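FW: tagging you since you asked about this chain on Friday. Here's the raw sequence from the shared folder, copied in full. Didn't touch anything.
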Amino acid sequence: MAAAITLDRIIAVQAAYVRCIDSGELESWPDFFTDDCLYKVTTAENHKLGFEAGIIYADTKNMLIDRIVSLRQANIYEKQTYRHILGLPTILANGGNEVECETPFFVARIMHDGQTDVFATGRYLDTCRHAGNDLKFARKIVVCDSSRIDTLMAIPL
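HL: got it, structure written out here
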């Protein structure tokens, strides 16, 4: 029997998620999602208006895997890393096997020459679900506060 979805489990999966991205272990990033997941990066304005399209949009784990394969093998971009700072998640709804939560984030982007800039701020709107004993994202909507988004976003948020 899976453990209850509690705030400490949500904090742990969020911390592991951003550590995976920030440490460059992107091949492991899709493993944080269920097979039938939704991952979308959008702006606060587009989210408020209910627009479905996103800057990044993937509705299966295989699409996330393809994104990382193309990032590593096909796309050419300037070397960069992220550093995420997360706020505490707020549980919005808890149905036992599934929980909806909101987590604020701040992301700095560090370029190969050391230049560091605020890259994005916003909130994760997540649906987390039991997958065996693990907690995985069935849905992760990344809502960026600014409408000015770098369209050459190479690394997932």
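FW: The first strand starts at residue 33 and ends at 43.
HL: agreed, and The mean pLDDT is 92.
FW: great, closing this out.
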